[in-house]
Amino acid sequence: MTEFTPLMSFSGGLLIGLSAVLLMFSWGRIAGMTGILGGLLPPFNRDLAWKSCFIAGAIVAALLFRLFGGAVAYTMPVSTAAIIVGGVITGIGVTYGSGCTSGHGVCGLARFSRRSAVAVLSFMSFAFLTVFVIRHLL
């Protein structure tokens, strides 16, 4: 059972959207977390400064949220090995899909990108199918 948290969910979505808009207006860049994080790994490129600040801001914001009593209780219904395998599969999908949920889902759909719409429909369909198979068939 998932706890219903409309205020926290709305606030988080608002902050994600605001950060995407600010990054687009200030640097002219798409807020795709995987692309930003990947740009920090070797070989480095010339955009190291803003990418470092963006990732640091995401980490610091989560730490500040926790520090000021915003902890959210959660459980992991799968093993650590399953999380690692899922991360690897997601990384492969991000590579072949040329972007992640934040790049395609938040920024691409907001720009009415057809390519992003297809990507979002693809990964959401496979996410629904995966959850159904794991929870109801296996």
Protein model, in words:
This protein is mostly helical. It has one domain (6-137). The protein has six helices and no strands. Helix 5 packs across helix 6. The radius of gyration is 17 Å and the shape is globular. The mean pLDDT is 87.
Which helices and strands occur, and which strands form pairs?
Blueprint: H1 6-27, H2 33-38, H3 48-67, H4 80-96, H5 101-110, H6 114-137
Supply database-style keywords:
0% strand, 6 helices, Sulf_transp_TsuA/YedE, mainly alpha, 138 residues
Question: In a nutshell, what does this entry contain?
Answer:
The protein is mainly α and 138 residues long. The chain has helices at residues 6-27, 33-38, 48-67, 80-96, 101-110, 114-137. This is Membrane protein YedE/YeeE.
Over all CA atoms, what is the radius of gyration?
17 Å
Order of helices and strands: HHHHHH
Question: How many DSSP helices?
Answer: 6
- Molecular shape: globular
Number of domains: 1
Q: Strand percentage, roughly?
A: under 5%
Proportion in helices: over 70%
**Strand segment count:** 0
Main location: membrane
Protein name: Membrane protein YedE/YeeE
InterPro entries: Sulf_transp_TsuA/YedE (IPR007272)
Organism: Martelella mangrovi
